[in-house]
């Protein structure tokens, strides 16, 4: 019987509390927040469950060994000593990733190469043959993390980054990362108890993640493969049991999730992605210009969006943000609107005071995630005067 072990879930800056809550809700033990990561304890079944369910994790790592390193020789010797037979067959394949925060070790590609050499040399000496390197679909992905002089060796349970949910077709639009989208929606407090609108939905990522949250659908249910499926101890029966028990918890949804975009190509992509995610019954995508719309009913509306910027916005930015503010004020009473932007100057044109500002990173750009509360009645009062 497999026991419990420690794992590390990596995430984006600022998402640590959201991820920690997700882990606790799933039933993880000993949950501790770190820097862009959360550590926790669980068994093999929980490792499968975490990969299937977590919305804000980039990867789940399983620590394998840790030791001090003062030189490349130290690294090589320590790696070579480890019992790789436990986790990798001599006829298997491997890939190595490295992250470094050290003055001694500064070149991550070189450290990856040195690690690979040590593992391969061990097999060659023992068996006269060696595992292959396969950067795309390895049987084992090894993660090296060096902090000053401490080296953590972990096994990557996820394989490809967990933002690759499996529902998105090739895209020509710069789409928002799925993990960022899910984190924004969770941070905004969305719980599926009202209507939802993304007025500038691009390829549909935000409405899809919102529907999955509302219906309690596991984030990575559409993924083709996880790293652990190629491991020596892969337990398909256990995985299927975990998957079935998670799918029993899927809930129904009784409101409307809408995505607007004025670009025909974006609307086509969004519809394809919604269909791939099996969410067509919950999400409507419409080709329309947000600035010409009004709120459809008197019910409370929850809005989350990522306004286009840079290359995606061939317009006057200050004018564009002014129109966002005007449309919200005049046409969307009874709405809680959240959006992300990296343009602090543009924000001055919105003409509304945000009730919350959260620091986030969007593709490396430092950004603000802002909340605007548009109250009922402001529109009616204007008409009386």
UniProtKB/TrEMBL annotation:
Keywords from the UniProt entry: Methyltransferase, RNA-binding, Transferase
Question: CDD domains given for it?
Answer: THUMP_AdoMetMT (cd11715)
Matching entries from SUPFAM superfamilies are given as:
S-adenosyl-L-methionine-dependent methyltransferases
| Gene3D superfamilies the UniProt entry points to | 3.30.2130.30, Vaccinia Virus protein VP39
**Where's the THUMP domain?**
46-157
Source species, domain of life: Bacteria
Transmembrane stretches, start-end: none
Single GO molecular function? rRNA (guanine-N7-)-methyltransferase activity
Q: InterPro entries per the record? A: RlmKL-like_Mtase, RlmKL-like_Mtase_CS, RlmL_1st, SAM-dependent_MTases_sf, THUMP_dom
Q: Under which name does UniProt file this protein?
A: Putative N6-adenine-specific DNA methylase
Lineage of the organism: Bacteria, Pseudomonadati, Bacteroidota, Flavobacteriia, Flavobacteriales
């Amino acid at each position: 019987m497999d026991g419990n072990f420690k794992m590390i879930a990596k995430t984006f800056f600022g998402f640590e509390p959201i991820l920690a809550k997700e882990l606790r809700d799933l039933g993880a033990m000993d949950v501790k927040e770190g820097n862009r990561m959360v550590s926790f304890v669980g068994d093999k079944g929980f490792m499968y469950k975490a990969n299937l369910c977590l919305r804000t994790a980039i990867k789940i790592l399983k620590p394998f060994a840790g030791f001090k390193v003062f030189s490349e020789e130290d690294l090589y010797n320590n790696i070579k000593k480890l019992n790789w037979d436990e986790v990798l067959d001599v006829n298997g394949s491997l890939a190595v990733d490295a992250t470094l925060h050290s003055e001694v070790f500064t070149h991550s590609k070189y450290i990856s190469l040195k690690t690979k050499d040590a593992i391969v040399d061990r097999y060659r000496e023992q068996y006269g043959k060696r595992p292959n390197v396969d950067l795309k679909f390895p049987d084992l992905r090894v993660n090296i993390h060096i902090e000053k002089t401490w080296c953590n060796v972990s096994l990557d349970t996820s394989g490809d980054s967990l933002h690759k949910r499996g529902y998105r077709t090739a895209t020509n639009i710069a789409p928002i990362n799925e993990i960022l989208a899910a984190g924004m929606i969770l941070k905004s407090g969305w719980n599926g108890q009202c209507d939802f609108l993304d007025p500038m939905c691009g390829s549909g990522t935000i409405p899809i993640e919102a529907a999955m949250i509302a219906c309690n659908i596991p984030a990575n249910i559409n993924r083709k493969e996880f790293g652990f499926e190629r491991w020596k101890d892969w337990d398909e029966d256990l995985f299927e049991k975990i998957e079935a028990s998670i799918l029993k918890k899927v809930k129904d949804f009784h409101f409307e999730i809408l995505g607007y975009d004025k670009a025909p190509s974006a609307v086509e992509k969004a519809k394809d992605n919604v269909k791939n995610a099996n969410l067509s019954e919950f999400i409507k995508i419409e080709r329309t210009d947000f600035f010409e719309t009004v709120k459809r009913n008197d019910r409370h509306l929850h809005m989350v969006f990522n306004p286009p910027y840079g290359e995606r916005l061939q317009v006057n930015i200050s004018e564009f943000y002014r129109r966002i503010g005007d449309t919200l004020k005049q046409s969307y009473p009874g709405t809680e609107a959240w959006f992300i932007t990296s343009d602090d100057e543009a924000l001055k044109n919105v003409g509304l005071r945000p009730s919350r500002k959260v620091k986030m990173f969007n593709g490396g750009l430092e950004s603000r995630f802002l909340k605007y509360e548009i109250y009922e009645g402001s529109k009616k009062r204007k008409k009386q005067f």
